[in-house]
Amino acid sequence: RPRSHTVTTTSSSFTANLSASSSTLAYDKEFLRTVPGLLMVTEIILGLLVWTLIAGTEYFLYPAFGWVMFVAVFYWVLTVFFLIIYMTMTYTRIPQVPWTMVGLCFNGSAFVLYLIAAIVDASSVTKDLDNHNYNSWAASSFFAFVVTSCYAGNTYFSFISWRSRTLQ
Question: MARVEL domain: which residues (predicted)?
């Protein structure tokens, strides 16, 4: 005996808005002129220096440098990702995400883990360990501390932004 069934389809306003608004991408030219934008570009450039200086050595023989590489590459990729989100103003197209909280958590975790990685990097650099790689490791340690200070600055600005949103 044949069964009859009814199929009902509905369209949500979210998918309609998403498809309508994704036809053009916005570009925020002024973001790179702000202090957080400049800090983010500095984090990308100097973070790249940190992990390339270590990657050009035999870092895999020393677990401490493996940790520094993980933190440097992980946050470098995420920072590039967030720069693209801010430059294309994607955050305005996805209002369901609490972007100020995401930025605060990202920058805060980057600051803490980069600080740990910079300390590990600096404490692991000795001429006795491997004289051939000493200069690269010492330079990576210096740049890791500079990147850490950039993430600290961005954490501050993210906190100010988050605080102003929560007080409204």
Answer: 31-163
3-state secondary structure the chain: CCCCCCCCCCCCHHHHHHHHHCCCCCCCCCHHHCHHHHHHHHHHHHHHHHHHHHHCCCHHHCHHHHHHHHHHHHHHHHHHHHHHHHHCCHHHCCCCCCHHHHHHHHHHHHHHHHHHHHHHHHHHCCCCCCHHHHHHHHHHHHHHHHHHHHHHHHHHHHHHHHHHHHCC
pLDDT for the residue 3: 61
**pLDDT digit string (tens) for 88-126?**
988 888 889 999 999 999 999 999 999 999 999 999 888
Measured from the Cβ of residue 86, the count of other Cβ atoms closer than 10 Å reads 19
* Interacting residues of 92 by C-beta distance below 8 A, sequence separation 6+: 26
